[in-house]
Amino acid sequence: MFLSENKNKIVLLDIECHLNSISLAYWICVDGPLVKNGGITLCTDDYTLVEVELLIKALINKFNMKCTIHYKKVKLIGYIIEFMFLKVI
After folding, report:
1. 87 CB contacts (<8 Å, ≥6 apart)?
2. What's the total number of domains in the chain?
């Protein structure tokens, strides 16, 4: 999302203010592979659990998404967020 002074990826506390449909679409295009159940995985490998929870809260509040956190031990990639497609009217 953003880089700290030491060039580490961080999630800002006010991330919800920075997310919009265009930034979400970009994030999905760059780092959002589809999953078999019809959802999308958002890779959040470099973030802490607290940061991933903050992102999920923002996605729920901003886009009314049903999100879940998964921890992947394979290759120590860390946390990912999965969410289901929602019908947009």
Report:
1. none
2. 1
Burial code (b: 16+ CB inside 10 Å, e: under 16) for 48-84 equals eeebbbbbbebbeebeebebeeeeeeeeeebbbbebe
Task: List C-alpha distances in Å: 36 to 2, 14, 41.
Answer: 30, 32, 10
Give pTM, 2 decimals: 0.76
Chain segment 47-69, per-residue pLDDT in tens = 888 888 898 899 889 988 888 88
Determine the structural domain holding residue 33 and report its residue range.
Answer: 2-84
Is 89 inside any structural domain? no
